[in-house]
Amino acid sequence: MSSNNDNNAINSAPNAATTNAAAPAPAAATANSPSSSPSSSSSSGSSSGSEESLKVIIDRPARTQEELQADAEAEALEAQVRAQEQLQAEAESRARAQARAQLLNELREGIRILEENVASARQYRLQYAVAYPGGPDTLRCITHEQNQIRALAAIRQSFAHMQACWYW
């Protein structure tokens, strides 16, 4: 049985060496930890650089999260600005369309009034010519009627041009 004990001692020797070699490593890691004893504080001065780099690695996800949050806020703000610009452009477009419709209605009304004026001037000229053939105001009546016809032609041309314009 003693040979069996010798074999166990030989077989356990390498295990003991491996166990003893591995044991100081956790102790060294504990010495570098922030909660180490005051006696190991002299060695922590040299490990502060590694603690800082470890802290940077640990803090990096937090900064990245803050950057992502800032990017998301910036994108949201840009989207809000784009939405406001689109709403403003739509409002301006509606205002232009409303102004255009109002102007075209005013031009239609102006055409109607000028057509009435031309008809009235023509009727007055004809009545005057019948009542006073060759009278002194005959030329004035003809000139007035021609001016009304010219004004009507000009406003009709403006109306047609404005109806054709798509950009305003």
UniProtKB/TrEMBL annotation:
Domain of life, source organism: Eukaryota
Any coiled-coil regions, as ranges: 67-124
Annotated region described as Disordered, given as residue ranges: 1-65
Biased composition (Low complexity): 1-50
Alphabetically ordered keywords of this record: Coiled coil
Composition-biased stretches (Basic and acidic residues): 52-65
Protein name: Uncharacterized protein
Organism: Periconia digitata
